[in-house]
Amino acid sequence: MSAQSVAIVGAGMGGLAAGVYGRLAGLDTTIFEMHDKPGGLCTAWTRQGYTFDGCIHHLAGCLPGTPTYRMWEDLGAMPREVLFPAELTQVETPEGKRLTVPTDLDRLEAHLLGLAPGDRRLIRRYIRALRIFTRFDLFDAMTGSWREWARLLRHAPTAIRWGRLTMRTFAARFRDPFLRQAMATIQYDWTDTPVILHLNILAGSAVRRYGFPAGGSLRFAQAIADRYLSLGGEIHYRAKVEAILVERGRAVGVRLGDGTEYRADAVISNATPHATLFNLLGGKYMDEKLRAAFARPQDEMVMGVHVSFGLARDLSQEPHAMVLWLPKPVELADRARDRLDLELFGFDPSLAPPEKGVLKVLLDTKWRYWVELARDRSRYRAEKERLANTVLRLLEPRFPGIMGQVEVWDVATPLTTERYTGVGPGFASSPRWGAMMLSRPMTVPGVKGLQIVGQSAGGAGIPGCATMGRNAVRTLMAAGRG
Fold it and tell me: What is the four-CA torsion angle of 249, 254, 258, 260, rounded to 10 degrees?
């Protein structure tokens, strides 16, 4: 059956991309979004003139002519002003030791050798790997570029060798005690993430494939929404989908919370797989494999809490990010912590008033902790305020005077994210590696004409989710030709 009309659940990156590519393919597309803004998790919020960004750390596809850049061009997100911070991050200890990770690989090599000459051999292997990774990009391959896959395969031995390591196991190879501690944390403080991800991002930053879109995540998402509307697409905001309509084994539209039904030839869901299967489909289309996959919800939420400050302080000379080790562990929210993961936005003057700045601290957390707190709203609010005050006190030694420079603060918890985006805890099922590498949408057994896209469905970051949306449309068009 050839799809002529498509109902899209959610204006996240996958839904927006599906909308744009659907219109480019001549399909009638309508997006239904529960929030009053586009972007889903690719978002930001404004408080008293300060923009607190909630998403982009390093955006792939910033180099003109690359496959991911061309996709952003299709979507209306490029060309645009892109900022390229000079450092990936900086690690500091209470004793005054400092590891700076510049995106200039010559500077990085000299800095590491100066800190740990006894680790010369390992450092040079690391820099050599980074230089090899400047020749290809994993995200360009994920967007479906066979030329990029061929380039990746030429360097497969390097990728495989480093792919066996995590940041923690790599750092353990250093003899120098400080580098053994610090190197594990230099990629978003994700100590268990594969080194190959770090190599890809730092090498990509070195050749300006990775950057930060000026104005932040919401402005980036809004540009795609504007492109979609300019192509004649429709977006209904504050329109929460209650159910996906299924007749004779085929998705035929959606029903909103107010009872309104919209008929369509196909449905693309940018809601999470769990929400799609259990809420929108009522749990009716579940085989044993799917039931097993969703049997164990994960309590851990990586970067689940955002503690943001609008400061009467110029941060333009500070690094883009920082891992700040504490003199001793401190209880923050649901656990004791020995370091803070900071993002500093002084490199983008559009996010704060003149000569002022935005600083954010990211914390991993437990979903259940905040659910229990929220049973008593006064306790929930008090904990957010206590958390902000404690973080501020911990920042004072590194940023003298900061406690008196706060003009506005904000704490976003996992419940904040769920309220605005519908994204809750993940599940302890195995990752869909094939879907992730090929940006392949998820399908549902027994329901034709339905595809699920987005981060929870296996999309690798913003470009992976956008590619999933594009691929969902390609699947519809291929089915029509067949």
Answer: -100
Say yes or no: 168 and 315 in one domain. no
User: How many contiguous H segments (helices) and E segments (strands) does the chain have?
Assistant: 18, 20
Do 186 and 167 touch, CB atoms closer than 8 A?
Answer: yes
Question: What number is the average pLDDT over the span 224-236?
Answer: 99
Residue 222 to residue 36: CA distance in whole angstroms: 12
Alpha-carbon span 208 to 86, nearest angstrom? 11
Q: Which domain holds residue 122?
A: 101-206
DSSP track, 54-65? -S-SSBS--STT
Structure tokens at 323: 């891992």
The residues pairing with 256 across neighbouring beta strands, listed in sequence order, are 241
Whether 212 maps to a domain, the answer reads no
Domain count, the chain: 3
Q: Give the pLDDT score at 432.
A: 53
Q: What CATH number corresponds to the domain at position 270?
A: 3.50.50.60
CA dihedral 416, 362, 213, 356 (to 10 degrees): 100
CA-to-CA distance for 324 and 4, rounded, in angstroms?
53
* pTM given for the model: 0.95
DSSP assignment string, 258-306: TS-EEE-SEEEE-S-HHIIIIIISTT-S--HHHHHHTSSB--EEEEEEE
Return the residue matching tokens 């393919």: 25
Tell me the mean pLDDT in the region 293-307.
89
Sheet of 406-412: strand order equals 98-102, 87-92, 321-332, 335-344, 357-366, 300-311, 406-412
What band does 335 get if pLDDT is binned at 50, 70 and 90? very high
The runs of H, that is alpha helices, within 363-460 are: 367-373, 377-395, 414-421, 433-438
Asked whether residue 80 is domain-assigned, the answer is no
pLDDT band, very low/low/confident/very high, at 482 (cuts 50, 70, 90): very low
Is the separation of the CB atoms in 438 and 142 below 8 Å? yes
How many CA atoms lie within 13 Å of 52's alpha carbon, on the beta-carbon side?
21
**pLDDT in the model for residue 3:** 66
Q: What angle do CA 462, 467, 470 make, to 5 degrees?
A: 135
Q: Is the peptide bond before 79 cis (omega within 30 degrees of 0)?
A: yes
Q: Which of 84, 345, 346 is nearest to 211 (CA)?
A: 84
Burial class (CB in 10 A: 0-12, 13-18, 19+), 464: buried
Tokens 């501020």 sit on residue: 392
Examine residue 69 and state whether it is found in any structural domain, yes or no: no
3-state secondary structure of 328: strand
Closest alpha carbon to 176 in 128, 102, 111? 111
Residues 405 and 438 in one domain: no
CA atoms within 13 A on the CB side of 396: 11
